[in-house]
């Protein structure tokens, strides 16, 4: 696996890196949340901007980014606007979604940006190229909140992400059975045989094992709850770090 270095954090070396979401709806909530999250010492912080009440105001987004960046330094910052079709909180036309991403990339305040695979391929390719030109790492993602697609579908999507230029492909699924969980873990192990670092997880109670065992199967990062969880099944940073360290010591 070829590691990806983002500031002082290297994805693909050692224990999976812990990413914690910011879920505040206002600037004051975000700043308060950052103070709490920094005490947990995450490897990376994700701003879930679809929760932000002024996300459709690009100037407000840029202002918030500057405040977040100033408070977070030197922790890497991942920007995510999760679309409504993949569990996000704010409906937005695709053209506005990609314009938002380009605005964030141009701000030079973020280290990584999340883009969703199942959107519009031509617009996606344009914004990926723009991010790379600006030196911003790209996480290409896909989230299934109701089921776990077939193994072949998941492997195809991960490979498509690589083909489109993702620095880190990401897949999240909702298992309904233990067999679904095993499918996700098998996909992770097989995809890990390539040079590309990947992030995978199964959500909900059944998926907890996938959040803990990334080092065994090949996922380079995992998400923990800050003041709020951003997806079903996230546990606290302290619980997650303890489990990751135990697995690292004995694997």
From TrEMBL:
> Which residues does UniProt mark as catalytic?
143, 170
Q: Which Gene3D superfamilies match?
A: Aldolase class I (3.20.20.70)
Q: What is a single molecular function from GO for this protein? A: 3-dehydroquinate dehydratase activity
- In terms of domain of life, where is this protein from? Bacteria
Q: Does the keyword Amino-acid biosynthesis apply?
A: yes
- Which keywords describe this protein according to UniProt? Amino-acid biosynthesis, Aromatic amino acid biosynthesis, Lyase, Schiff base
Which of this chain's residues are annotated to bind 3-dehydroquinate? Answer: 46-48, 82, 211, 230, 234
Spell out the coiled coil positions from the record.
Answer: none
Q: Which InterPro entries match?
A: Aldolase_TIM, DHquinase_I, Type-I_3-dehydroquinase
- Pathway this chain belongs to: Metabolic intermediate biosynthesis; chorismate biosynthesis; chorismate from D-erythrose 4-phosphate and phosphoenolpyruvate: step 3/7
- Entry's EC annotation: 4.2.1.10
The reactions it catalyses are:
3-dehydroquinate = 3-dehydroshikimate + H2O
NCBIfam families, A to Z: aroD (TIGR01093)
Q: How does it assemble?
A: Homodimer.
Give the function comment from the record.
Involved in the third step of the chorismate pathway, which leads to the biosynthesis of aromatic amino acids. Catalyzes the cis-dehydration of 3-dehydroquinate (DHQ) and introduces the first double bond of the aromatic ring to yield 3-dehydroshikimate.
Family listed: Belongs to the type-I 3-dehydroquinase family.
Protein name per its UniProtKB record:
3-dehydroquinate dehydratase
- Which species is the source of this protein? Oceanobacillus kapialis
